[in-house]
Amino acid sequence: MARTKAYSKKVSNRITTINRKLRGVEKTFGADSEQYRRYINAATAALPTDAYTLTEEGQLHIHGGKAAAGSLKLGQLEALGKLPTAKKSMDQSKKALAQNKLRAAGVSDPGDHEIEQQARSISDEEALQELAAKAFIEGLENSKGKLKYSEEAKADLQQKGAKTYSQLKEIIERANKRAAKKEYQREYRQRNKEKIADYQRDYRRRNREEVNRKQREYRERKRNEQRIARQTAEHERNNPLRRR
Asked: Around Cβ 155, how many Cβ atoms within 10 Å?
């Protein structure tokens, strides 16, 4: 059966709407975002390869015009048409962050009203930061979804309580900096082992009297501590009240 003009118009309008939503999602979240990848996955799964363009930079565009209106079917565009707009995706992201923030604050099972209230206090910028943190954390997960992190982060991550993705990212980045600093110091000492040893020998030679004085004071202090400990023990043994 021949395609009617009304049907072709619906196809054309649907393509226009999808491309407009695509531009909005790209502008808000970026072409490398999870939200944008949903459109790419839906397009590559449902449409023939000549119905769209996907650039090396990951930008998607559904071809319009008479050819597309005359060949594509509404059913092929259905999955793309149901994907959320940038605003709806942002609202979903804010609610997800709100739920995580409430749990991190000790609310184990927040209700819809609490989540919506908290979400209203979250800015677009904060929601985008949380999404970036989520992508960062997911990039550290292995194939089984287990988070990989340095030993430096272990203590902080194992503390009780839920954490937002931004909090997890901050903990891991802080731990990575500490680990990198320790590794740099270790490598520096290894590279300059002889130089450091020469400096220490020279310091002791130039400050021999001061070093000897400190050593004498240290030994005297230890002897005094040991003497006091012996006297205390002797006093405890000879205390008649203690023997009762």
From this structure: 10
